[in-house]
Amino acid sequence: xxxxxCSNYPYGFFHAYRNVAERKELSVVVHLGDYxxxxxxxxxxNGTEINRIPNPPTVLATLSDYRARHxxxxxxxxxxxxxxxHAFITVWDDHEFFDNSDGTRKLDERVKNGIRAYxxxxxxxxxxxxxxxxxxxxxxxGKLMDLFMLDTRIIGRDATDKYLPWEVLNPKRQMLGLDQExxxxxxxxxxxxxxxxxxxxxxxxxxxQIQLLGLPINYDSWDGYPFARKRVTDFIxxxxxEDVVILSGE
Length: 250
What we know:
Blueprint: E1 2-4, H1 15-21, E2 29-31, H2 63-73, H3 77-85, E3 88-90, H4 109-121, E4 137-141, E5 145-149, H5 165-168, H6 178-193, E6 198-203, E7 211-212, E8 215-216, H7 226-238, E9 244-248
Parallel strand pairs: 1-2, 2-3, 5-6, 6-9
Antiparallel strand pairs: 4-5, 7-8
Helix pairs in contact: 1-3, 2-4
């Protein structure tokens, strides 16, 4: 299994995709989000210098903008090779929409446009045909591994970039949302009952604590949602669920 994230067209070339394409032993490629970036030219990467100017050259807003950017990414030869060689399992992060988007913005036109373009251009089935854009889902690899792909960005996340202690330390603060959190816990228990060897959680943002002088340095990560993280780790500990691996994008 290969794990990838954060592919920014004007920032450089996608050699890593070519390397993955050449790895014949892989069963699947897991992409943890930021498959595209929404910025205009020169904002986060200078495509002019390397002949990789994003299309459109302005920040994405309309449905046609998001479609054009996805279509441009699909012209990259290395990305084409990776998709041709291996199955992809994908989830979105924020840059498929806009920087630091969250569940409070799910009705924003840019989010709705980004969701529609994502389902049009990525190899993914929507879990339930409703307006939520649900993408959290699971995959079973025999008795070797159960893979749980989460949405830590849109479907259930409370407002990001909160810095005040009474906001960050609110025990009801949600990263996954009640439904997705319950779904994850139920599936972890079921995986243990099936005696699957490994339980792998694929998600978009840094799960581990990263602090400077005792304070988080990125409140958009799980550090900004410590009680939500504690609910996950407590559930795993209290139910003696072993061999859990948490993948992080970012």
